Sequence to fold (275 residues):
Amino acid sequence: MKLHASPTLGALLGLLLATDLIPAASAAFANVKEGDAVPEATLPTVDGKKEPLLGKAHVSVFVFFRPGQEHSRVTLEALGQAQKEFAGKPVRWTAVVSDHFPSADVLADVKASGFTGPVLVDAADTLYGTLGVAMQPCIGIADKDHKLLFYQAFTKINYADVILARVRFALGEIDQAAMNKVIDPPAATQGGEAQVLRRYFKLGERLYKAKDFPKALDSARKCLEHDAANGACNGLMAAALAAQGSCAEAKLALEKALAADPKDPLAAESKAACP
Fold:
């Protein structure tokens, strides 16, 4: 099955933004601001069922994405990991995609990402237009009354951490101050080597959990270019190498990781794979 529709304003805006013709800073839910009620909608899913956008969960997280786009891939992977972290908690996870895209492409990207929530197909970009979505990917988080708490456009730094912090705040697990520390870290921690290391490690960790071991290894190496003795990055490198059967190299990285942190979890996985 192929999902077709004539291009609408929402679709064209998304395509323009994906090619960097619209600055990311302008992207948001143009028609729904934080504090407004998000209109409920029941749509067909990519696998032929019907599901609501929000439902009755305490917290609803929904993402607008497009297949074949790198930022959307990273976003779905981040949400897939978040689903695992919040397993058993009252959080609903939903993805929305335009019917402009072939269903096979949508299913392939979702499966590869690890995201397991329903994927709603937005016919003629009706929901895109209702909310005024001008960016893909873009995440919305709503409470049990369907009030929009946050929308979160894609960012290249700390994206997964920001999503987790916003959901934790919505669940009442952290307060505003704790969330703000993640979203807007103190100036002393922004930029510089520490931020670069963290970015490469977090990306590599997500790739490793998604079983994309070659790309996880690449991130580990970039991390170690900035600090060859970093324990977490060495642990990531050891785990990525071990997962690919390169035990001799993995053991060298493992030694450095354990020297920095004997309880490093990724180092432990490497040791189990290459005893």
Notes: Strands lie at 42-44, 50-52, 59-64, 91-98, 119-122, 138-143, 148-153. Confidence is low (pLDDT under 50) at residues 1-27, 187-191. The first helix runs from residue 9 to 18. The chain has eleven helices and seven strands.
